[in-house]
Specification:
Radius of gyration of chain A: 27 Å
Largest sheet of chain B: 8 strands, mixed
Oligomer: heterodimer
CATH superfamily of chain B: Thiamin diphosphate (ThDP)-binding fold, Pyr/PP domains
Strand order of the largest sheet of chain A: 6-5-4-1-3-2-16-7
CATH topology of the largest domain in chain A: Pyruvate-ferredoxin Oxidoreductase, domain 3
Number of strands of chain B: 11
CATH class of chain B: Alpha Beta
Order of helices and strands of chain B: HEEHEHHEEEHEHEHEHEHEH
Shape of chain A: globular
CATH architecture of the largest domain in chain A: 3-Layer(aba) Sandwich
CATH superfamily of the largest domain in chain A: Pyruvate-ferredoxin oxidoreductase, PFOR, domain III
Number of helices of chain B: 10
Largest interface: A-B, 99 and 73 residues
Largest sheet of chain A: 8 strands, mixed
Number of domains of chain B: 1
Number of strands of chain A: 24
Distance between the termini of chain A: 21 Å
Distance between the termini of chain B: 59 Å
Number of domains of chain A: 4
Structural class of chain A: alpha/beta
Shape of chain B: globular
Chain lengths: 664, 328
């Protein structure tokens, strides 16, 4: 059976089904229940750009220690439709289990319209090679030959039995418990405490008692069935362990949303787009939030509040705009008015935002743009993963203006980075692009509740009082460090002008060549200030062997699979590998990279795009060229096992450019 | 601070050299805005004027209030963002007909749906001036202004009708050279709670040789009896017309809106100016937000303290995390 490095325990579980049939809720039920049993989990969600009918699946790994990515091998495949088994039976390891609907054994490959032609051909060939036919039963036969255990579940009979127990005969209502049964069967074969499922159901159905009761009855029916019909010797068991402290089950969009509230973001704008919109919708739901118990004097009131005092609640205004042009412009002007403001989007939306980005750069307006990258170009792969927007983020816009581009490696980083993004934006008075991606957005993970007590909100040179009418205030005053004190709109004595044209210190249009040069210098030299001011630990992070000859370099959500891969590699005796994660991508941390990589014998650039975009920046800034590339752009995030295998192949064969292609 | 001195239009002027063409209609509109702000005694620092790109979008630089000369076609999203962040501000958006009804028309329509308490003034001269006289979205089909190699083959958009069907709750038309009338319209628009729209007809002395000052004044058609020109513009209020809703009834709303749209199609020999439509009942966006989150009324985004004196965040998200907490 698959083992994960030297780690004692790691379970890889998968559930699949047609979109709209409750795959997500089953996966959430499983993830919550298993974390409730005391395990850390990481869950990956894959789905089509479709509402109902196409195949989606969820892969959850669970471990006694924090886990950061999914793996390729599957220990238990749980299903309630035939398509899931056709697609994923091949991933189940020897000794693993397939749970499926006993009544669908006769389903034929050719009758499943949602399997694409290429895959259908591939499956057909596999079955032919194995010398079997094309029904579900044939697929299962092949799996069984490999030592996979089969768990046929007569869902319909068990649904009816559940109905008898609770006195409910309406089948359409009862059928909803099938998803829960697929999860319960997994728990039953692992001999897990059924009460954990009760916890999970209460979480998943938000305490709708009748629904919880019905589902829990279904769980009991399944438990009884499994106990009576299958041997009780599945090699993985799931005993309840002590629960790690302060654990939450969270996804990337919620994590960033909560961080925005903490960061003081009070205006969020967005235009609906996958996968970014979840963050804004979550924020809209949480728009009214508590503020810390305070003594009125302790709070730093903006002068714009006049004599108003905060009620006992805070509020973030979420505006759904007509397009992304409006989204960035509203955020920028809310910022001009003194609020911390952000907009959240994906690649296609950011394409539209570029004109607004340039204006913000020209007028030195702090604004945070959260980008959840997805497969491009154009509409690309709307629901799939990619890291294809790095160079676009760094260079977006005509002309030259400063911006910061940063990327988070995991949910916890994304939380703190979100706060930092607002601090950077206000401190340096420029747009900050915070790169995230589909994998981070839609993955589920158990993390410890982030500590907010150490967070400082740095608003830079924001003037927080009315000025004298004759203050002679100049918004773009030339200063030693190129940062000019900033008044929010509505400040007495603080009137200024902004224009997308080149301008003088007051902000009026100027085409004077001397002013032009000075203003360009003022803006662009802020990049030097950024480089000097941001501590090294916020720019890069190092993992693995710090004296390694071999360095993996990467950025963003590949962090999770790489960190887990280092553990796998170590288990296989390959322990002299370091990992350099870049967190600030622009201005590029050239000196740190040069220092770390100058003695490396091998540099493996690992990214989820075609070109190795970060490596291009590295070469541009440091003249360092990686020796090898491990790239992936099929729309599915790296698994840790895929990274480990990729690194091994590079080390073994010195493959210059390895393109991997795993994931269904 | 209390206002000790009465504000006059001079308080709203900047010392900049104004580089519009001599005789440009923009001058009249600029003066009308300055007079309106002065007469309403709005302290300069409490107002913000947003514009897009084009000749008329230079307006903010000539007004002594916060002046935001933004992106082509985007004055409305900018104006709305600032107003929602700080509802204390008097927010005016200005721009040309190309800016607002060509590249920015999506925002024009969607702003109407929100009814944020702002005023939008379109300087409508039928041409793109700063790029040397191309046809704008309000130039009629078949018209050939000076710089066009061929007569215009696009139909014109009807700004008044579009504003009404989009949901603007104050819709008016003024004329750049009737500053007294225009100033009054602007004052009403600023005082109206909700999105106000004013289309201002104006000659472009450089590129629009069809709709000239003389054309508007009817110099080409002299009354044989009085020997005086017959102006093409007339004032709606002088005809006894009122487009103001008296009740919050859908029936009256539809009937008044329909009549206003009908009047907006009058063009050529007799063209109305004045208030076409006003709906004081549809709630502005700010009220709609407060309907969901009453805290907004006292804690708009720019008024909220986000940190304490020790620079720590004031938001307490512990209960949000609690919802996500794993329990055994």
């Amino acid at each position: 059976m698959f083992r994960f490095g030297r780690r004692g325990f790691l379970l890889s579980w998968m559930i699949g089904g047609a979109q709209g049939s409750g795959v997500d809720s089953s996966a959430n039920l499983f993830a919550y229940s298993i974390s409730s049993a005391g395990y850390y989990i990481f869950g990956k969600r894959e789905y089509y750009s479709n509402i109902k009918g196409e195949h989606s699946y969820f892969n959850v790994v669970a471990s006694e220690r924090p886990v950061n990515a999914v793996v390729d091998p599957v220990h238990i495949l749980s299903s309630f439709d035939a398509e899931t088994v056709f697609r994923h039976a091949w991933e189940v390891v020897e000794g693993g289990a397939i749970i499926y609907d006993a009544s669908q054994e006769g389903e034929s490959l050719k009758n499943i319209p949602t399997i694409e032609e290429r895959l259908r051909g591939e499956l057909s060939e596999r079955l032919r090679d194995a010398g079997v036919g094309e029904t579900l039963k044939d697929v299962l036969k092949v799996a069984e030959r490999r030592g996979v255990r089969l768990y046929p579940i007569p869902y319909m009979d068990l649904v009816k039995r559940t109905g008898e127990v609770i006195g409910e005969q309406q089948l359409t209502l009862l059928m909803r418990v099938v998803n829960t049964m697929a999860v319960a069967a997994s728990f039953a074969i692992m001999r897990a405490d059924i009460n954990r499922l009760h916890r999970g159901l209460t979480y998943a159905f938000r305490a709708k008692k009748a629904v919880v009761d019905m589902n829990f009855t279904a769980c009991k029916v399944v438990y009884d069935y499994v106990k009576q019909n299958f041997p009780d010797d599945f090699p993985i068991s799931l005993p309840t362990r002590p629960l790690p402290d302060r654990l939450v089950l969270i996804n990337g969009t919620s994590c960033v949303g909560i961080a925005k509230i903490v960061a003081g973001c009070r205006v969020q704008t967005y235009y609906p787009i996958t996968p970014a919109a979840d963050e804004s919708v979550y924020l809209e739901d949480k728009q009214v939030f508590r503020v810390n118990a305070f003594d009125g004097d302790e709070l730093e009131y903006p002068h714009l509040a006049e004599n108003r005092k905060l009620a006992d609640k805070g509020h973030i205004l979420v505006v759904q705009t007509e397009d992304e042009l409006a989204a960035i412009d509203m955020a920028v002007s809310a910022s001009l008015a003194g609020a911390r403001a952000a907009t959240s989007t994906s690649g296609p939306g950011f394409s539209l935002m570029v004109e607004g980005l340039g204006w913000a750069g020209m007028n030195e307006v702090p604004v945070v743009i959260t980008i959840y990258q997805r497969g491009g170009p154009s509409t690309g792969l709307p629901t799939r993963h990619e890291q294809g927007d790095l160079l676009f983020s760094v260079f977006a816009g005509h002309g030259e203006f400063p911006r910061i581009v940063m990327a988070s490696g995991d949910m916890e980083e994304a939380f703190y980075d979100t706060v930092k993004a607002f601090n950077y934006a206000e401190k340096f008075q420029l747009p900050v692009i915070h790169l995230l991606d589909k994998s981070l957005a839609n993955s589920t993970q158990t993390i410890h509740i982030p500590r907010t007590s150490d967070i400082i909100l740095d608003r830079g040179m924001l003037i927080n009082e009315h000025l004298d009418e004759k203050s002679g205030y100049k918004r773009f005053k030339f200063t030693d460090n190129n940062i000019s004190p900033r008044t929010p709109l509505g400040t007495r004595g603080g009137i200024f002008w902004n224009t997308g044209d080149e301008h003088d210190e007051l902000g009026h249009i100027s085409e004077d060549p001397v002013i032009r040069t000075r203003m360009m210098n003022k803006r662009m030299e802020k990049l030097e200030l950024v480089k000097e001011s941001i501590p090294l630990g916020e720019k890069i992070a190092l993992y693995g062997d710090q004296d390694a000859d071999t360095w993996i370099i990467s950025w963003g959500s590949t962090k999770g699979p790489i960190i887990d891969a280092l553990e796998i590699l170590e288990g296989d005796g390959i322990d002299s590998v370091g990992f350099l994660q870049l967190k600030i991508l622009y201005p590029f941390p050239s000196e740190a990279c040069s220092e770390i990589l100058s003695n490396a014998k091998r540099i493996i650039d690992l990214e989820q795009n075609y070109s190795g975009q970060m490596a291009k920046l590295l070469t541009m800034e440091t003249r360092i060229v990686p020796t090898n590339w491990v790239l992936k752009y099929n729309g599915r995030p790296f698994t840790s096992t895929e990274v480990a295998d990729g690194v091994k192949e590079v080390l073994l064969r010195n493959t210059k450019r390895l393109v991997t292609n795993r994931g269904g | 601070m209390t206002v000790t001195q009465k504000l006059t239009a001079a308080n709203f002027r900047t010392p900049l050299f104004n580089d519009w063409c001599p005789g440009c209609g923009d001058f009249g509109i600029l003066a009308s805005i300055q007079m309106a702000l002065a007469e309403l005694q709005i302290e300069p620092y409490r107002a913000a004027v947003f514009s897009g790109i084009g000749c008329s979008s230079k307006t903010p630089h000539y007004i002594n209030v916060y002046g935001l000369h933004t992106v082509h076609g985007r004055p409305l999203p900018f104006a709305i963002g600032a107003k929602l962040a700080n509802p204390d501000l008097t927010v005016i958006a200005v721009g040309g007909d190309g800016d607002g009804l060509g590249i920015g028309v999506g925002h024009f329509v969607n702003a109407g749906r929100r009814n944020v308490d702002i005023t939008y003034i379109i300087f409508d001269n039928g041409v793109y001036g700063l790029t040397k006289g191309q046809a704008s979205p309000t130039l009629r089909r078949g018209v050939k202004t000076k710089a066009l190699p061929r007569p215009n083959i696009n139909d014109a958009v009807n700004p008044i009708a579009l504003a009404i069907v989009s949901g603007y709750t104050f819709v008016a038309r003024g004329y750049a050279y009737d500053t007294r009338h225009l100033k009054e319209l602007i004052k009403q628009a600023i005082q109206h709670k909700g999105s106000s729209f004013i289309q201002v007809l104006q000659p472009c002395p450089t590129y629009n040789d069809i709709h000239t000052k003389d054309w508007f004044a009817g110099e080409d058609r002299v009354d044989p009896d009085t020997k005086k020109p017959v102006p093409r513009l007339y004032k709606l209020e002088e005809t006894g017309y009122s487009g103001v809703l008296q009740t919050d009834s859908e029936e009256e709303r539809v009937s008044k809106a329909t009549e206003a749209v009908r009047l907006s199609y009058l063009w050529g020999d007799k063209m109305p100016i004045g208030v076409f439509f006003r709906d004081p009942f549809t709630p502005p966006y700010e009220e709609r937000i407060a309907g969901i989150a009453p805290v907004y009324l006292n804690s708009a985004p720019a008024w909220q303290p986000i940190r304490n004196k020790q620079l720590k965040p004031v938001a307490d998200v512990s209960d949000i995390f609690e919802e996500l907490r794993v329990h055994q």
